[in-house]
Amino acid sequence: MIRALSAEWAKARTLPGIGWLLLGAIAVTVTVSAGASAALSCTSSAACHPDITQLSLTGTDLGQAVVVIVAVLAVTGEYATGMIRMTLAAEPRRLIMLTAKAVVVTTMTAAAGTLAAGGSLLAGRLILPAQGYSPARGYPDLSLADATALRATAGTVLYLALIALLSLGIATAVRDAAAAIGAVLGLLYLFPVLGLAVSSPGWHRHLQQIAPMTAGLEIQASAGLKTLPISPWAGLGVLAAWAATAVLAGGLALRFRDA
Amino acid sequence: MTTATVTPRRPATERAGFGHLLYAEWTKFVTVRGWVIAMVISALLTAGIGIWATSGYHGLPCGKILPGGQQVAAACPAPPLGPGGEMVTDSFYFVGQPLPGDGTVTARVTSLAGSATPGLAGGTSALQPWAKAGIIIKASLRPGSAYAAMMVTGRHGARMQDDYTRDIAGLPGGVSGASPRWLRLVRSGDTLTGYDSADGARWAMVGTVRLPGLPAAVQAGIFVASPDWVTDEDGGSTQASGVFDHVTVAGTQPGHPWAGRDVGADAADNPLAGGYRQAGGVFTVRGSGDIAPAVRNSAGSGRAADEGIIGAFAGLIVVLVVATMFISGEYRRGLIRTTLAATPRRGQVLAAKAIVAAAVTFTAGLAGSAAAVLLGQRMLRGSGYYIFPVGELTQVRVIAGTAALLAVSAVLALALGVIWRHGAGPVTATIALIVVPFFFTGPMAILRGTAADWLLRVTPAAAFAVQQVLPAYPQVSNAYIPQYGYYPLPPLGGLAVLCGWAAAALGLAAFLLRRRDA
Questions:
Q1: Can you give the residue ranges of every domain in chain A?
Q2: Which residue of B has its CA nearest to A70?
Q3: A173 vs chain B: nearest CA distance in angstroms?
């Protein structure tokens, strides 16, 4: 297992694209978060965002797309170049190989996610008071010492790690970068867009409960917790279930299929 | 074995060249079974999700739940139709008298203010920007009948409006005791002319309108209306009160009594029932509602006929993946070298690929969106929601426009695929550019107002404007957002933005394809 891990780590470390993509994920997340914090000033009570923790982590919505690319390319890159045959010749226990890959990709994503979420929160802390979200108005400064903000930030790291696992599983099953990314991003972004058109409020709520993105991102909620369609940790659990299913499907495909 | 060399007749092959090229690319596409299946899936997703989204409601939106928990089905009452055939809101408080023929209505408005609505949860007593107090000449008191009116509004000065959709600006500024507004409407046959004045001496004409088929005997008088307040996700009724004096109707029999009436109000126990008080020559009128075209919003139970088209988002993602693979597959397998060896005119290869991708996705998109719109409409009719009327040409535009949206998006993905020579970038970029902007402009989103509008003007997502069927009216306050089917650009303008992106990407792709090694 250690050998498999170090092999996967060596591959990930020496590929030129991965590092840049992870930096890109951090940059996109922090930039969009900071932009969102700067865009929504709190001039009147109607315009104020009720949940500044969530607001300051908005960049996750877009940053996760880069995480998806990283995780998908970690798998499909090998299929595109034929490297996969070499990998499996060196490590014939395919599920061990997949596990090692998952550990490496998830760890890298979690490291980048920590910087992305921390940076976003920090940007929010610096920007938001100037936008009118002051303690005097009932918006205390964002801080990791606050249990809810800590849950939201750490939860964002877990969210991104689970997105990486979901992508890895689907990519292993599909083996093509374009198809895998289309499938993952469709799964993530289609549910919320379709939710806009569904006529029934009940269905709308169900959609938010089962969709990997809307359910998973409830981990960022820090206000109005009673009215959420699904509680924060349960929502992250829904995403974990999606990720587990995807990895299982990928593992089965890898185990029983020619490479 | 022959030693004769064969010299190809170049001119002949060049003439037949592009047709062959198209045929070659077409063959490449249809012989990959996965892509053909994917295009069928794209059409099925567009249609299926559209039908599912429009059929999501089983309890009938305007039904009642009895104390025992039993549901009683009921269809939502449809708004009345205006003279132009469009759905309208026509409810206001009216104080007037019959006008048997030609005549003139004059009144001075000295105050227009929002009034509290204690019977309503979440009500507001703020004066609405389009609250109205003024004079009106109307064919009858039946909601939806023809009218012309001169009015002062909450924030938009004096206006002349007629037949629900037309709106002409008069004197700017609000109204108060210190700066009252005089209003006058002159009726001559089916022609009505509106005037306003700040002092009752110097009058300025605001506009002249014709109301075809206006009967000889009409209703004339003063009115007050106050439309719903709306935000992106919420809304509610309001009430306003206006104060009038110097009210005269010339052309009616002198001394005819005034009669007040809530026009278009549904229930007897309406907490917003209007009313009026007359003391000497001063009328104080309370009213709520609006005289305006109906718009789709969070409060109403109306739906646009084409809402099934939402499924196109799902079909689009499949199309983007297939279009990307159509080129990234060539790079991945090295087939691109064979392709370019067979046809060294690289620009033409790109053109042929783009035409095949566009034609295939247009066909799939046409089938999918036609099914989504036509079947979705049937589902909506059965759901109890009322449907805003939509012309057949508009429907054709929505269906063909959505198919074009898919086709041009496919060309954009293809061009990005040539630029990237890889599948991951183009799929992510096109999804991020076309689908994700909607996620940032939805009702839960952080971007509101102008920022959201700009996102839907400059990104390729602007093309979804081609699906707008309901006009947005500046004289009606509403959340004009994509969720309710309103886009910041006109339909073809939005499609043109996407075409611009595709053309720019295609140009760069052609340049790089020629310059670079394959």
A1: 2-256
A2: B424
A3: 15
